[in-house]
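Q: What does the assembled structure look like for these inputs?
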Amino acid sequence: MISKQQRSFAERTFDILNYAFMAVFSFVCIYPFYYVFIYSISEPRLAQRGIYLWPGNFNIDAYIKIFSLNTIPHAFLISVEKTVIFTILCVYFSAMLSYLFTKRVMPFRSLMYRIVVASMYLNSGLIPWYITMKTYGLRNSFLLYVLPGIINAFYIILIKTYIEQLPSSLEESAQIDGAGFMTVFNRIIFPLSKPIVATVAVYASVGCWNMWIDNYLLVEKANLQTIQVILYSYLNEAQSLSQGLADMMRSGNAGRQLQLSPESIKMSITVISVLPILLVYPFLQKNFIKGIMLGAVKG
Amino acid sequence: MLSLKNKIGWTYFLIAMPFMIYVIAFYFVPLFGWIYSFYNYNPALSFSQLKFVGFDNFVKMYQERSEIFRVLKNTLAMSFLLILVTPLPMIAAVMINEVKHNKFKRFIQTVTTLPNFISWIVVFALTFAVFSNEGLYYTILRNLHIDVPVIGILGNNGAAWFFQAGLFIWKTIGWTMIIYMAAIAGIDSEQYEAARIDGADKFGLMRHITIPGLGPTFFVLLLLQISNLLNNGLDQFFVFYNPLVADKLDVLDYYIYKVGWAVSDYSYATVLGMVKSLLGIGLLFAVNYLSKKTKGESIL
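A:
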């Protein structure tokens, strides 16, 4: 039998080690982001020699250069646009179909529901997907970013489960007042589903923001490039950097000479492509966790 | 004459139709692309001009079996490493649960889930910043006058699998941890009190209540991981691919991409993708069957 003292000693040791471990764990997760950020706002020469905690000689020349070029701000806007449009379409139509699936009077309801759920497990593979998108004329088209994936079986399951447990009295009284399907959906069901809709919006928007393979394989048009692919091409020096970055370094600005290095440019683009996620992160995380909780309850 | 109820039902049906057409167009129509496995696909030709080759593309899989085995070895190695580390998020969740300062706890959760929200391209950017030869890690070593290898970790062939598995854990552990945190929140608090009255200490509670309480969640996540045996995902291996580690990062998903785009053998890539998809569905059902048998619960 261990004495109470020994026990509390063991517990205290565990606590100290546990806190220390958690501190290291958190550091490992967050520090790379911080490092890239301070590098991007440091003087390149100093940064190359090694900066760890604070930026060395605050310097935002890399950002000035990036924003003076058209490609990167434009790609950023394309990414924002596609994410906003896709998220709205996805959330609205997924919710509408989910609502339809709660209607027991609809003929073939369960068959249609099963077809949608089955879509979650079907995967045609890269090539058939590519050929289909090309056949639909989505190649080199902005629609490629926002059309596929609007109806997502996983979201449908989440929203349908949520709508089913809403009180039906509101809906019924609206129907008695003569409101049609669209009115009931737009005025009552959709607003009432806000919690789950917010969760789905988070999943959809993060997924869309981070999506790049569609752009990479099917869109060559310069004015439709997304920030992810631009970032990739800058990281992958072999291709674009040799021309793009070399031009960048050579062209002296009208005023003073900008202090740039390939690294500082890469770091700045990385920061720009993570920034939107960081800005909405608190909101994002809250709803992500909520979604997992709902999924866990369901599972 | 339709009754009013039926009329409403059919109205709903009509509204649902465009949605169903959409689902079929975007999820089912691509499956017809599997037909190209029997043809010699050429993007420049129309379907009627394509040459029918029967099972030639399937035979090719057999002829190139040494390549396939190499790719499968990489695929399975990555998958087994990830199956091996499935307890990690659970252990981390149990440990976080022991952090009693709520602010610190929330901070840990916030910070460790961040990597889950970024694309693999950004993960590559961060990794490059830290581990490339001019990156942070080797800069520190140089400043400490420690010898730096000519080829850094990103090009280290022997460590490639482990490095990629490490990155995967880094990216996903925070998110998986939240699933376990949710499960811990669902454990009946009376159990803890009863055990405490019986004289259980912190370790006793962890061992006899928290960890057994997480068993079902662990089991489901493990089965899902197993059902993903052939799916390593393209993104990670696409961005980290380089000549020095090429033979180790050639997993099935990447190989299919490579056959399709680098070699332009669309039909053969279709065959590989189709076989992978079908095996994947088979695995999922097998795993689900296993779950039903052992736990009486479906995971689908």
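The longest helix of chain A spans residues 4-40.
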